[in-house]
TrEMBL record, chain A:
It comes from Rhodophyticola porphyridii. Keywords: ATP-binding, Nucleotide-binding, Transport. Belongs to the ABC transporter superfamily. PANTHER family: BLL2173 PROTEIN, MALTODEXTRIN IMPORT ATP-BINDING PROTEIN MSMX. Gene3D superfamilies: 2.40.50.100, Nucleic acid-binding proteins, P-loop containing nucleotide triphosphate hydrolases. One of its GO terms (molecular function) is ABC-type transporter activity. One of its GO terms (cellular component) is ATP-binding cassette (ABC) transporter complex, substrate-binding subunit-containing. This is sn-glycerol-3-phosphate ABC transporter ATP-binding protein UgpC. It comes from the Bacteria. The keyword NAD does not apply.
Automatic annotation (TrEMBL), chain B:
It comes from Rhodophyticola porphyridii. Belongs to the binding-protein-dependent transport system permease family. Keywords: Cell membrane, Membrane, Transmembrane, Transmembrane helix, Transport. SUPFAM superfamilies: MetI-like. It holds the Pfam family BPD_transp_1. CDD domains: TM_PBP2 (cd06261). This is Carbohydrate ABC transporter permease.
Length: 361, 275
């Protein structure tokens, strides 16, 4: 199978700084891939390397099966949407949209036709003769998208395109960008530091940290089976709770360092006596009566309410977060009973951070 | 002291300084219209009683003004052309890269700016003489003075280029442009104002150039106006009204250009300073 974009052990050094470490990634045609990670993790460098704005130090980069390591950006036939939109300020919206076509030598009439067509798709028909500085942030964002679409490139590259928009517009554009991707059957690589954007938009999510791919897979695979502590903590909001624990019984149970030292029967096998780090997502800790079997008594230190859900922060070390639906009638200093779904528990080796589950699977 | 009073005092100081600086200019115009005798009148005449417009007609013919100003134009244009062609490329590189070598280069460029022409003219003269450049005195002057204006131009242009975001260039590269194409289609149009203003300042500098022309150009027919003016200074007679008429003819076009473009010039000089 030939992939639309394929990276094979790609490395990038800036002098002594090792920015990308052995990146291997295969993107089939039509897929929406999100590169996500904290700032400085190399996600933008990776995108810029695909675009050809950075030269990779070693490894192979193929686009539609053809190695492009030595090709300049203009010969790669990719379109890129920049975080700052990078609209040409001295050109009208129409000229911004058709700039690439003009460079390709497309006739004036054809350019005008395609500009109208794309303007209709992105809803900017009436603004074609404006200059970028006369547009709002959302409109500029659309022009940047239109400039990419009009070329019908082999793939779209997005570098945090929504981060300059306000929250409401960002949520709307998230859906629109994805809908656009599906409608034109594009292949997209989308860089973001926002894991919610990655989870909601992408078919395939790649989590990067310190220049290395920590894990890649479907959004739900990353959520349900994080390969290590980093991915477990990065994906999901609010972030996963971590606490120390010890493998107990015949190796299929874990004793938590929580009040009452509860023992959970897990589906994960380990060596009895092994110290592990236990991860439980806030939404998998269920509020219940204090006298229920296995209920852990916890004291609440603070409550945050969003309306749809409430986040309860607990006292003690480590601080835990418990999510409940709706607005809870719970105040600070109340004691709550929390039951933990043993099937939703993740175990990690304390030193390497690797998931015990993935070791056994 | 309240803000309004402070402002007024500062304005008064500014006006006083401007008056001191502009008085010679005024005196030049007034003197150019006086008769020989009224120049030395005591007390001095601040307005000429009978303006002698003939002074201008006389020097236009006698002093070969068209030839001198023509030479000045040739030198100024040559200097501007060479400085702009070489300097803008240099400024672009200095604006786009950031490392130790670039810092060293910038420091060197600033040092060049410090050296006065009167210090440089002797070594340049000797050097040019040994390679035969003095055979073409105007060209030699252009070369020598271009070296002087280059640092100034490079520093100003670098600021202009730095106001153009790098991402615009990258967008053009991804859109299918080459590096050179992106420079000419995106960077140059956006930095145009800064470049034009810098070039204009270089041109005005070249138009008034004196030190190099005085040393390098011996032939009277090739000398620029700045030298031509001194021909009126003779050991026994100094023709003040003729010199002033010559000077007025020489600087008025420059002054006019400066006044017309002053808003853009100020913008160009400060562009990039705030970002």
């Amino acid at each position: 199978m030939t992939y639309q974009i394929e990276l094979d052990r790609v490395e990038k050094h800036y002098g002594r700084f090792h920015a990308l470490k052995e990146i291997s990634l295969a993107i089939p045609k039509g897929q929406f891939v999100a590169l996500v990670g904290p700032s400085g993790c190399g996600k933008s460098t990776l995108l810029r390397s695909i675009a050809g704005l950075e030269r990779i130090t070693s490894g192979t980069l193929r686009i539609a099966g053809e190695p492009v390591n030595d090709l300049p950006p203009r010969k790669r036939d990719l379109a890129m949407v920049f975080q700052s939109y990078a609209l040409y300020p001295h050109m009208s919206v129409r000229d911004n949209l058709t700039y690439a076509l003009r460079l390709k030598g497309v006739s004036r009439a054809e350019r005008a036709r395609r500009a109208e067509e794309v303007a209709a798709v992105i809803g900017l028909e009436t603004l074609l003769d404006r200059r970028p500085r006369e547009l709002s942030g959302g409109q500029r964002q659309r022009v940047a998208m239109g400039r990419a679409i009009i070329r019908q490139p082999r793939a779209f590259l997005f570098d945090e395109p929504l981060s300059n928009l306000d929250a409401a517009l960002r949520v709307r554009m998230r859906k629109e960008v994805r809908a656009l991707h599906d409608r034109i059957g594009a292949t997209s690589v989308y860089v973001t530091h926002d894991q919610i954007e990655a989870m909601t938009m992408a078919d395939h999510v790649v989590v990067l940290q310190a220049g290395r791919i920590e894990q890649q897979g479907t959004p739900m695979a990353l959520y349900d089976r994080p390969a290590n502590r980093f991915v477990a903590g990065f994906i999901g909001s609010p972030a996963m709770n971590f606490m120390p624990g010890v493998i107990a019984g015949d190796g299929r149970a874990v004793r938590l360092a929580l009040p009452g030292n509860p023992v959970l029967e897990t589906a994960i096998a380990g060596t009895p006596g092994l110290e592990v780090e236990v991860g439980i997502r806030p939404e998998h800790m269920v509020l219940g009566p204090l006298d229920a079997p296995h209920a852990v008594p916890l004291v609440v230190s603070a409550v945050e309410t969003t309306g749809a859900a409430s986040y309860l922060f607990t006292e003690g070390e480590p601080e835990l977060i418990v999510t409940t639906e709706g607005t809870a009638a719970i105040r600070a200093d109340d004691t709550i009973g929390v039951s933990i779904d043993p099937a939703r528990v993740h175990l990690f080796e304390p030193e390497t951070g690797a998931s015990l589950r993935s070791a056994k699977l | 002291m309240s803000g309004a009073v402070t402002n007024r005092v500062l304005l008064a100081v500014a006006l006083a300084l401007a008056a001191v600086y502009l008085f010679p200019l005024y005196w030049m115009y007034v003197t150019s219209l006086k008769t020989q005798s009224s120049i030395f009148a005591v007390p001095p005449e601040f307005l000429p009683g009978a303006p002698q417009w003939d002074n201008y007609a006389t020097i236009w013919e006698v002093a070969n003004i068209p030839r001198y100003i023509g030479n000045s134009l040739v030198i100024a244009s040559g200097v501007t052309l060479i400085t702009a062609l070489i300097g803008s490329g240099c400024a672009y590189v200095l604006a786009r890269y950031r490392n130790g070598w670039i810092d060293a280069a910038l420091f060197a460029v600033l040092m060049l700016q410090v050296l006065p022409p009167s210090l440089m003219v002797t070594p340049i003269f000797v050097g040019f003489a040994s390679v035969g450049l003095l055979e073409y005195p105007r060209f030699a002057t252009i070369l020598a003075f271009s070296a002087k204006t280059m640092p100034f131009f490079v520093i100003l242009c670098r600021a202009a280029f730095m106001t153009v975001p790098r991402e615009l260039e990258e967008a053009a590269l991804v859109d299918g442009n080459s590096r050179v194409g992106a420079f000419f289609m995106i960077v140059l149009p956006l930095a145009r104002n800064g470049l034009l203003i810098s070039a204009l300042l270089v041109f005005m500098n070249g138009f008034g150039e004196y030190v190099y022309s005085a040393s390098i150009i011996a032939d009277n027919r090739l000398q620029p106006a700045s030298i031509g003016m001194t021909n009126f200074l003779q050991p026994n007679v100094v023709n003040w009204n003729a010199i002033m008429a010559f000077a007025a003819t020489y600087v008025t076009p420059i002054l006019a250009a400066f006044v017309l473009l002053q808003r853009q010039i100020v913008n160009g000089l400060t562009a990039g300073a705030l970002k």
